[in-house]
Hints:
The complex is a heterodimer.
Chain A: E1 4-7, E2 10-13, E3 19-25, E4 31-37, E5 43-51, E6 54-57, E7 65-67, E8 73-78, E9 87-94, E10 99-101, E11 105-109
Parallel strand pairs in A: 2-11
Antiparallel strand pairs in A: 1-3, 3-8, 4-5, 4-9, 5-6, 7-8, 9-10, 9-11
Chain B: E1 3-5, E2 10-14, E3 19-21, E4 24-26, E5 33-38, E6 45-50, E7 56-59, E8 62-65, E9 75-77, E10 86-94, E11 100-103, E12 107-112
Parallel strand pairs in B: 2-12
Antiparallel strand pairs in B: 1-4, 3-9, 5-6, 5-10, 7-8, 8-9, 10-11, 10-12
Amino acid sequence: EAAVTQSPRSKVAVTGGKVTLSCHQTNNHDYMYWYRQDTGHGLRLIHYSYVADSTEKGDIPDGYKASRPSQENFSLILELASLSQTAVYFCASSDRYEQYFGPGTRLTVL
Amino acid sequence: GDSVTQTEGLVTLTKGLPVMLNCTYQTTYSPFLFWYVQHLNEAPKLLLKSSTDNKRTEHQGFYATLHKSSSSFHLQKSSVQLSDSALYFCALIVMSNYNVLYFGSGTKLTVEP
């Protein structure tokens, strides 16, 4: 079965601090994605990547950077965390048709 | 542009009743539609998918039919259970754009005893 893991599973960060969320997939998928979900709401695309060493902006990229050093790994970086970035972050990998989601990281910025 | 619309934000039903969650989409490309289900504090999981016009697809008691003529992919179940309480997302994939999924805003289904 497809496997996408995320670390950490939860994190408390201070405003203005740097936060790195990591995602690892063992699916051998080319496509990877980072989404943000606010409580009770839908998923919004932050960044995505279709090949190592390349990333693309999604719908809400402001305040976020992404890094894809290898096919298996995709990181989301908040250089200066803000209160408004408190949310659950999901990573996903994709074959041609279906996206497989990781368990999510709950980020709280204080 | 490409988009998905879910009109019901919140649906509350009594166990055993039927349910239909609405999903319409807009795209200039050949549509490939999905329904994802997300239980509380879990990741979204694929429930159904289809790219075939007028063919019913089923899984775990849920079913949906892609109708290209009306740009719809409504999710149905004949008898909801307590365990069906969850967030349901309709999504459209645009394979010409790096397989990006366009999600609807989601429908929260609550099933009461």
